[in-house]
Amino acid sequence: MIELFPRQTRAFDILTEPEYSHVSELLYGGGAGGGKSALGCIWLVHQCLRYAGTRWVMGRNTLHTLKETTLNSFFLIAKLGNVRYRYVENKGIMFPNDSQILLKDLAYYPSDPEFDELGSLEITGAFVDECNQITEKAWNILSSRIRYRLDEYGLTPKILGTCNPARNWVFTRFYEPYREGRLEANRMFVQALVTDNPKISRYYVTQLDNLDEVSRERLKKGNWDFLDISGNWAYSYRPELHLGDVVLNRSEVVRLSFDFNRNPIACHVSQHYGNHYYGLEQIEIDNCTTYQLCNEIKARYPECFFMVTGDVSGKAATTVSRLNNFDVIKYVLGLREGQMQYSGANPPLAESRMLVNAMLERYPMTFDRVKCAPLIRDLEAVKSDNEGRPIKTNRKNIEERADCLDTFRYTLHRWFGDFVKLLFS
Ligand SMILES: Nc1ncnc2c1ncn2[C@@H]1O[C@H](COP(=O)(O)OP(=O)(O)O)[C@@H](O)[C@H]1O
Ligand SMILES: [Mg+2]
Question: Residue 48 and residue 40: Cα distance in Å, rounded?
Fold first, then answer.
C-alpha cells in the first residue's frame, strides 16, 4: 500500500475534495525529491480506478524523458499499490474498467506550432511532470481540453503541474502571485521539498549536497529567487581555482571528446586519476576533417591509451564515405570497440548546466591555462537563455559557438554523470 506524506496529502486533497472544486490548476513542487512524480502518478491511478471509462493525460516535455522518468514512477506506484493495468508502448496505460492514461509529448515542434494534435483531445484531467519545461501555450491548450465525462461524474476540470523552481511562465503564473497573496482563485501552489519526503534515500540527499551552490539553493531549498539564471552558462567557473599547468600522465587513460562541426572541429582531451580532473588540451581547428584531426592527435599523444566519446549525431555517415565519424576515429587511432564510449543521445542542455557547474564547484578540476584556451574562452563567454541552455543562435559570433563547451559537457556526462544523476527523475 502507498501512504502519502503530508505535503502530498495536501495536494491530493486539492485535487480530489469537493471543497476545492473551484481549483482548476495546481502547481506542486519547489525541489528535487519532493515526491512530485509520485504524487502525479498516484492521483492519476486513483482517478482512473474510481471513475470508470475516463481518459487522462500524463505529459512531459518529450515522450522520451517521460518514458525514462515519470513512467517509471508510475510502474513503481502501480506495483506498490497492486494495480492491474496494461501498458501499450508509446501510447498509454489501460485499466480493466476502460479508463486510460495517454502519454503525451508536450514539446513545441515547429511543425505543429498551434498544438493541433492536443487541440483535438477530450480528456478528464491532466498531469504534466516538470511543467516548467513546456510552453505556457501547451499548458493552456491542454487545460482547455478537460471536459470528458466530467458532468457524468460530478467532477470539475483539474490540471496538475509539477516543477522545480524556474524563471519562466511558471514563476509569473504561480509562484510570484502566490508569494504576493494575489494568486487567482482557480489556481493553487503547494511547495514540497526533499525534506518533506520521509521516504527519500540517504544517497539522494548526498547527491543534492553535491550540487553547486546555485543549484543547491534551487533544488534542495526550493529557492525561486536565488538565481537569475540568464547569465554565464558556466557560472561556477573561477579562473583562480580552475587554471594551472597540466602535464600528460602517460600511465593513465586519455579521454577524447569530439564535436564534428567541420568549422571548427573540436576535441577535448582530459585525464582523471587520484580524484582529480585534468583538462589537458582543447583542440579546435577550422576547416579540418575528422581524419586529419585524428592524425594530429596521434602525433601529439603517441602511445597513449584512449577512450572516446562525443556528439552522437556523429554516428551519421560522413559525406565522403560510408564510415561515420566514430568509425574514422576508431580506425585512425587503432581503437577497440570497448574504447568507443559514446551513447544513444546527447545530454539535455539544462541538465548539463547543473552537472557542469556542480562539478566545477565541488570537484577538483584543473585546465591547462595555455592549451585549454578555446574551452576557457567558452566557459567565460557563453551565456545561458532562461531555460539553462547555452545561447548559440549566431555561429559567426564567437561567444555563441560553444563547440568546445559541448565537448567538455559530453566528457562530464559520459564519465561523471552519476555525480547528480538521480536528480533528474
Ligand atoms: N508516498 C510515497 N511513498 C513511498 N515512496 C515515495 C512516496 N513519494 C515519493 N516516494 C519516493 O521518493 C523518491 C522521490 O520521489 P519522486 O516522485 O521521484 O520525486 P520528484 O519527482 O519530486 O523528484 C522516489 O524514490 C519515490 O519512489
Ligand atoms: Mg520527478
Answer: 12
Classified as helix, coil or strand, 354 is: helix
What residues does CATH 3.30.420.280 cover in the chain? 239-424
**pLDDT tens digits along 142-179:** 999 999 999 999 999 999 999 999 888 999 999 999 99
d(CA 177, CA 349): 29
pLDDT tens per residue across span 39-96: 999 999 999 999 999 999 999 998 988 998 999 999 999 999 999 999 999 889 999 9
Q: For domain 239-424, which CATH number applies: 3.40.50.620, 3.30.420.280, 2.40.160.120, 3.40.50.300?
A: 3.30.420.280
Please tell me the distance between residue 77's alpha carbon and the centre of ligand 1 in angstroms.
Answer: 9
Give the residue, out of 199, 204, 206, 211, with the most ligand 1 atoms within 8 A of its beta carbon, to mutate for a pocket test: 199
Does 12 score more than 70 pLDDT? yes
Residues 90 and 115: their CA atoms lie apart, in Å, by 19
Residue (of 411, 385, 401, 372) closest to 282 by Cα position: 372
